[in-house]
Each structure stands twice: as structure tokens, then as C-alpha cells.
Amino acid sequence: GILPDFKKILVNMAGINASKVCAANCAGLPLVMSDIAPFREIYHGDVGCFYHLDDVNQLASAIDNVLAQKVTCGKSSRKLYEKMFSATQMAMEYEKTYFDYMEEKRK
Q: How many CA atoms lie within 13 A of 102 on its CB side?
């Protein structure tokens, strides 16, 4: 058979769709992410695995690793969501940013 181009399926080469990653966190799913700076900044190995773009073998290995640790990674993924991306947390961060900005304007 003809294999699909995995890059078109798994990676949005035109940009990062962080909302899909955040939705996976919310659902408590383990993550398989491309090894790029924006993901490395937020995510750590306990929520899933990283792979280098254009490395099919590393992608396959990352998927195998996540499947072997799906319960642990899934729980860590959900905890990270609650810590960083929940509506309550986001509202607190926006409020802090606003107050910091207003304080800076007063100086």
C-alpha cells in the first residue's frame, strides 16, 4: 500500500497548534511532540516524549515509549494542565500581568 506523509498528518509544518496540545493535556492524554523550543519550554519528559522532525525511527520510538507509560504520562499531562492552563490559573496569570502593567505605568 501507499503510506501517507507522516509530516502532514502529525505536524503542522506551517506553525504550532498549541490548542491541540493543551486539549490533550486537559483530557489527560500522554503527548508525542516534535522537539522544538516552544514545546521544550513548557513540557517535560513526564508528560510524554519528544522526537526530532524528519526522524521516523525516533517518532516510532516515542510512540512506543508513550504507549508503555500511558497511564503515568497521562496523569502528569492532566496535572500540568491544571497547574498551568486551567481557566482559574489563566485568569490569575492575566490578573497578575494586568496589575504588574498598571504598577509599572504608575512609576
A: 6
pLDDT in tens, the chain (107 residues): 454 444 444 444 445 667 788 888 888 888 888 888 888 888 877 898 999 988 899 999 999 999 999 899 989 999 988 888 888 888 998 899 999 999 988 88
Per-residue b/e over 13-39, b at no fewer than 16 CB within 10 Å?
eeeeeeeebeebbeebbbbbbbeeeeb
- C-alpha cell, 91: 485568569
- Amino acid occupying residue 100: D
Beta bridge partners of 48: 31
C-alpha cell at 62: 516515542
Instruction: State in Å, rounded, how far the first CA of the chain is from the last one.
Output: 67
Claim: this prediction has a pTM higher than 0.70: no
DSSP 8-state class, residue 48: E
Q: Mapping DSSP to helix (H, G, I), strand (E, B) and coil, where does residue 54 land?
A: coil
Question: What is the distance of C-alpha 87 from the center of its chain?
Answer: 17
